[in-house]
Amino acid sequence: MHLASEAAPAAATPPRWYSRLYLQVLLAIGAGIMVGLIWPETGAALQPLGDGFVKLVKMIIAPVIFLTIVTGIGGMHRTGDIGRVAGKALGYFLVVSTLALVVGLVVANIVQPGAGMNIDAATLDPSAVHDYADKAHAATVPAFLLSIIPTTFLSALTDGAILQVLLVAILFGIALSLSGEEGRAIHRLAEQLSEVVFRLVAILMRAAPVGALGAMAFTVGKYGLDALLGLGKLVATFYVTSALFVVIILGLIARFTGFSIFRLLRYLRAELLLVLGTSSSEAALPALMQKLEQAGCAKPVVGIVVPTGYSFNLDGTNIYMTLAALFIAQATGVDLSLGDQIALLLVAMISSKGAAGVTGAGFITLAATLSIIPSVPVAGMALILGVDRFMSECRALTNCIGNAVAAIVIANWENALDRQRLDAALASKGSPSRLAVAASEAPED
User: Fold this and answer.
1) How far is Cα 91 from Cα 98, in angstroms, rounded to an integer?
2) How many angstroms separate the CA atoms of 56 and 60, rounded?
3) What is the pLDDT of the chain when averaged over all its residues?
4) Residue 358 confidence (pLDDT) above 50
5) CA distances from 174 to 78, 82, 154, 268 (A)
6) What are the φ and ψ backbone dihedral angles of 437, each rounded to 5 degrees?
7) 200-234: buried (b, 16+ CB within 10 Å) or exposed (e) per residue?
8) Which helix (H) or strand (E) holds 366?
9) Which of 19, 137, 161, 284, by CA, is between 20 and 30 Å from 365?
10) How far is C-alpha 356 from the chain's CA centre?
11) What are the Cα distances from residue 322, in Å, to 97, 127, 327, 328, 413?
């Protein structure tokens, strides 16, 4: 008792201001902008720092997802709960992602960002988007469904395909829950292993500021500050539309569920800054899953909803798809009727799922959609190829926020949400997460 009482104040001591991850990432982003502005060639040469950090995080995503789902499902007594959670998640994804497509379509018609450009499609170089078009044709729905099935059990954990990991983990978790005493022993081992893996995640996250600095320095050094500040009407429209979607659409969903979208954004500020700095929502996936569990969402729900959402609930990507498609049509003088736009919407609903999990999914999905609508030239994608890099940050941020909201909503529907923990987490102004604590305790280099 005496030892516990002495240890309590040390455990409750908040971390020093300069040790907070979100502040370090924010400072790194600012430093990256300055390096890219003052020494453009040096900034462009720092791209490997950003790419290397993203690869480090992707390295650990498969075991994080696998262990989270296995420990969550393995502890369930009724396997029917798994199908119910997955069914509710897919239904939610269908409604919200379709709404995102509609929002992009409506805004493009109102703002008309490509109107008046009068681009002759014959003057565009189709070779600039040739590789993306080839990937888009490969991303058909049948090919996508087959790609979910891994070649071997272990290849699902080594190939980096999230849906393959998800499938193997769900099947293994179900088998574990049906295996009696032997299954419980393996379940305890998996829980212990997951603690080690999340400690590894905490160690890797210490490199987040370096990755953010490198990625931002490359962007500014390669494209210039003018490009960063004035990317044109399309980019501005996309950013404003995505922000309104988060605040209004996701904000209303959050309010009906009983929490504030703004408090959620504050709670996830470190993860969102990491996404902003690296332009990759996957960079924050392990930490996002951990933070949602800390906020009271049941582990099985988080394990199923978040990885699945990274393929099926891409709100930012969906807004981008319809907005960019109509921008290209407007810029090249193609007049799309209401029927054409409805067809575009229906095709986008399918292609956005068929290209899930493909690297550069936003641009590739757009190519897949335009290739099925013959009146809009695929070569028109060359118009946005130069600024697509700047829109990727906004896509990734919106996707990440949308999946965080989805996990809380599905957990609430399942009565698997600890309201007290959620309220305490969202009301916190800076209490350290388990990842932050683990990082502070990690051995020095």
Assistant:
1) 11
2) 7
3) 75
4) no
5) 9, 9, 17, 31
6) -65, -45
7) bbbbbbeebbbbbbbbbbbbbbbbeeebeeebeeb
8) helix 361-372
9) 284
10) 12
11) 12, 23, 8, 10, 30
Q: How far apart are CA 355 and CA 140, in angstroms?
A: 7
Nearest one of 277, 152, 269, 270 to 210, comparing CA atoms: 277
The pTM of this model reads 0.68
Residue 314 near residue 356 (C-beta atoms within 8 A): yes
Phi and psi angles of residue 153, each rounded to the nearest 5 degrees, phi first: -60, -45
Q: Which helix (H) or strand (E) covers residue 140, if one does? A: none
Q: How many CB atoms lie within 10 A of CB 414?
A: 18
Using pLDDT thresholds of 50, 70 and 90, give the confidence band for residue 175. Answer: confident
Q: Which domains does the chain have, with CATH numbers?
A: 17-434 (1.10.3860.10)
Cα–Cα distance between 297 and 304 in angstroms, integer? 12
Phi, psi of 417 (to 5 degrees): -120, 120
Q: What are the tokens at 296?
A: 């009271």
Three-class SS state of 264: helix
Which amino acid is it at 385? L
- Higher pLDDT residue, 142 or 297? 297
How far is the first Cα of the chain from the last one, in angstroms, to the nearest whole number? 35
